[in-house]
């Protein structure tokens, strides 16, 4: 998986060379021997997120139970995930009930890689570390806004569909640019 991560980061940096500085630590981690997609790898590891676009170009967000924040569906890479995009699709399906068969990639690469710090969690025995979240833009054929979502209630308390223009920062700019060109 490290080689897959390296290739994805390099492809991403070809499009977004201005983000190289923030991703250098990830490149170093992926070039090492520790499995960069394992949640046990510190000081950082890869996670994957789904930017699920439904009807009327709205983006699905979930309310994360423990963080009590609106986020994109996503999470850690599992051993059975063949690719990072597979991990994003699996997480979307697990957290929302949207089947993988109802999802189509809108690009063949992550449209964003977000590096964010995770605080120490003594209850889980986890030191502070960094998540490098590979975010994939996925079109959902169903259920779309107003349709049925089957939330994984252990982790998620609610969902909503928001216009892409309501996303924040560089993610908004990247998503709206791809949707504009689609």
TrEMBL record:
<protein>
    <recommendedName>
        <fullName>Nudix hydrolase domain-containing protein</fullName>
    </recommendedName>
</protein>
<dbReference type="InterPro" id="IPR015797">
    <property type="entry name" value="NUDIX_hydrolase-like_dom_sf"/>
</dbReference>
<comment type="similarity">
    <text>Belongs to the Nudix hydrolase family.</text>
</comment>
<dbReference type="InterPro" id="IPR020476">
    <property type="entry name" value="Nudix_hydrolase"/>
</dbReference>
<dbReference type="GO" id="GO:0016787">
    <property type="term" value="F:hydrolase activity"/>
</dbReference>
<dbReference type="InterPro" id="IPR000086">
    <property type="entry name" value="NUDIX_hydrolase_dom"/>
</dbReference>
<dbReference type="Pfam" id="PF00293">
    <property type="entry name" value="NUDIX"/>
</dbReference>
<feature type="domain" description="Nudix hydrolase">
    <location>
        <begin position="43"/>
        <end position="182"/>
    </location>
</feature>
<keyword id="KW-0378">Hydrolase</keyword>
């Amino acid at each position: 998986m490290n080689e897959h991560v390296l290739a994805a980061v390099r492809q991403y940096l070809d499009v977004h060379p201005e983000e190289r500085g923030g991703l250098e630590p990830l490149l170093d981690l992926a070039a090492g021997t520790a499995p960069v997609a394992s949640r046990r790898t510190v000081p950082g590891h890869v996670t994957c997120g789904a930017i699920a676009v439904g009807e009327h170009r709205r983006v699905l967000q979930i309310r994360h139970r423990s963080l009590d924040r609106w986020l994109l569906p996503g999470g850690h890479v599992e051993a059975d995930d063949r690719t990072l995009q597979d991990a994003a699709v699996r997480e979307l399906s697990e957290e929302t009930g949207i089947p993988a068969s109802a999802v189509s990639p809108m690009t063949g690469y992550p449209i964003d890689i977000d590096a964010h710090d995770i605080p120490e969690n003594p209850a889980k025995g986890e030191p502070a570390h960094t998540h490098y979240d590979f975010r994939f833009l996925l079109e959902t054929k169903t259920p779309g806004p107003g349709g049925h979502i089957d939330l994984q209630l252990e982790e998620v308390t609610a969902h909503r569909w928001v216009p892409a223009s309501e996303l924040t920062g560089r993610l908004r700019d990247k998503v709206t640019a791809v949707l504009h060109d689609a």
